[in-house]
Amino acid sequence: MELNLLTFLYLIASITFILGLKMLSNPASARKGNLVAAAGMTIAIIGTIFFYEDEGHKLGNYGWIFGGLIIGGITGTMAAKKVKMTAMPEMVSLFNGMGGACAALISLVEFNHLAHEISFSGHADGHTGKVLIIVLGLITGSVSFAGSMIAWGKLNGKVKDFSFTGQNVLNLIFLAIALALGTWLVIDPSHFYLLYIIFVLSLVYGVLFVMPIGGADMPVVISLLNSFTGVAAAFGGFLYDNKVMLTGGILVGAAGTLLTILMCKAMNRSLLNVLIGSFGGSKSAGAATAGSQGHFKEMSVSDAAMVMAYANKVIIVPGYGLAVAQAQHACHELEKILNDKGVEVTYAIHPVAGRMPGHMNVLLAEADVPYEKLQEMEQANEEFKTADVVLILGANDVVNPAAKSDPASPIYGMPILEVELSKT
Question: How far apart are CA 342 and CA 310, in angstroms?
Answer without folding.
Answer: 9
